[in-house]
Amino acid sequence: MLAGTTIADLEVEWEDGSIHVEREPTFGAPLAIVPSDIAELRAGPLVVTSANVGIFYRDAERELAAIGDLIEPGALLGEVETLNIRNRVTAPAGGVLRSILAADRTAVEYGQPLAEIDITTENPA
Fold first, then answer.
1. Is the pLDDT of residue 55 over 90?
2. Within 10 A of 88 (CB to CB), how many other CB atoms are there?
3. How many CA atoms lie within 13 Å of 4's alpha carbon, on the beta-carbon side?
4. How many CA atoms lie within 13 A of 82 on its CB side?
5. pLDDT in tens, 23-42
6. Which residue has the higher pLDDT, 54 or 11?
């Protein structure tokens, strides 16, 4: 039922019972950056935007990339909670995390910039 979605936690209650499902969400492949795109991206940082409307979280207990970290594609940058479902915000490409543009536990909207990544041509370790 949840295959192919980013839903990680679902709880349904009704008069005579309830069901709670938790799983690791599935994600599409990270954004592919081809060599011809690198020159264009070097003109400025790659801006990671919100795919959801909700509350942005950068919880201290999670293993999140920090500003200045060399990150790989798919690195966890934060989460946007919508209807009590946390949706991961991940790096679409490798590079150096330049900045986080949304404060922890603040409302964000669809398309709002959340982070900036300086793209690197090297494969980050």
1. yes
2. 16
3. 1
4. 15
5. 765 544 444 445 445 555 55
6. 54
